[in-house]
Amino acid sequence: MLTAQRRDVLLARLRDEGRIVAKDLAAELGLSEDTVRRDLRELAAAGLCQRVYGGALPASPATADYAARRTVGVPSKERVAAAAAALVTPGSTVILDGGTTALAVARALAPDLDATVVTHSPTVAAALVEHPRVEIVLLGGRIFKHSAVACGAAAVEAAERVSADVFLLGVTGVHPTAGLTTGDADEAAMKRALARRAADTYVLASAEKIGAASPFTVLPLAEVAGVITDVDPADPTLVELAAAGVVVVRA
What we know:
The chain is α/β, with parallel strands linked by helices. Helix content is 37%, strand content 25%.
């Protein structure tokens, strides 16, 4: 089998089954495990998969830069945002993550909502200025330009002074075995710090994030109250999540 043919097979398997176990696929195709692992390394270097122990998972398109992500899965993000906005009740305090889905949530909040929104995203904070009764608390720190959010020690320290009813968490991957992941270690740490400050955490999971994985773990699925998504409940990833006891909130 030629190299290009092998890689087509690997990508098809990722697309159809959502994961590759290198040992099993090597035996199935009559290849050495080293050959399969080498192909996976090269696909990962090209951004076409996320390598994990023993194989690979689909890479998330949500790891593109902020400008590019604004055009990815817009209808799905808007549906997820509408469902997430419904979780923000009058008088509550909500932590709203950064990113394009979180920005859609800010825009989906009721114009007359009376609540407090804490965010480490300047773009989310700016969008909330249009809501006259929303009190905005912007956490400062070093700006991670890829996602347009504040990260680092100063931002984590500011988060420790917050207590919220709910955290609406953005991630780049939601996978039954990899859990909730994102593409940057500091950003993952910031998300964990915010999750510790809320009574409940809900994941904003537009379609391109379901079944995908990124390099850095944010939280185990067991630590969130639910995953908000518009993906068909019959999707294999959602079936597996539900079987593991993860609450899926339909958008």
